[in-house]
């Protein structure tokens, strides 16, 4: 994942509603969830939800598909894994981290 994409993704997640939406969709899995259900579950007004969903789609963190008259949103797992991989790529100098090593990485 390129640095530019990482910055866009992290900026998109650096907002409470968008982070909540993304976490909900990760928990929901690949079947995704209709925008109306997301709004209900998180108590986000539809107009605000549309804006937040657009930002997450732009950051490539979620994908949408049409299902009849509903738009279904799902977490883009490949992008999420690429972001996590980018953030942890050089952890502990490339050696597998244990809890003790992980703590040492952050203290040093």
Features:
three-stranded antiparallel beta sheet; 108 residues; elongated; alpha+beta; single chain
Structure description:
With 108 residues, the protein is α+β, with helices and mostly antiparallel strands. The protein has helices spanning 3-13, 16-28, 35-42, 46-58, 77-88, 99-107, and strands at 33-34, 62-67, 70-75. The chain is built from six helices and three strands; from the N terminus they run ααβααββαα. The protein has a three-stranded antiparallel sheet with strand order 1-3-2. The longest helix is centred in the first third of the chain and has 13 residues, at 16-28. The radius of gyration is 16 Å and the shape is elongated. It starts with a helix and ends with a helix. The model has no long low-confidence stretch (mean pLDDT 90).
Layout: helices, strands, pairs:
Elements: H1 3-13, H2 16-28, E1 33-34, H3 35-42, H4 46-58, E2 62-67, E3 70-75, H5 77-88, H6 99-107
Antiparallel strand pairs: 1-3, 2-3
Helix pairs in contact: 1-4, 2-4
Largest beta-sheet characterization: 3 strands, antiparallel
- Helix content, binned percent: 55-70%
Please state roughly what percent of the residues sit in beta strands, choosing from under 5%, 5-15%, 15-25%, 25-35%, 35-45% or over 45%. Answer: 5-15%
Evaluate the radius of gyration. 16 Å
The pLDDT mean sits at 90
Element pattern in H and E: HHEHHEEHH
**What is the count of β-strands?**
3
Give start-end ranges of low-pLDDT stretches.
Answer: none
Order of strands, widest sheet: 1-3-2
Structural category is alpha+beta
The global form is elongated
Which assembly state applies to the chains in this document? single chain
Q: Number of helix segments?
A: 6
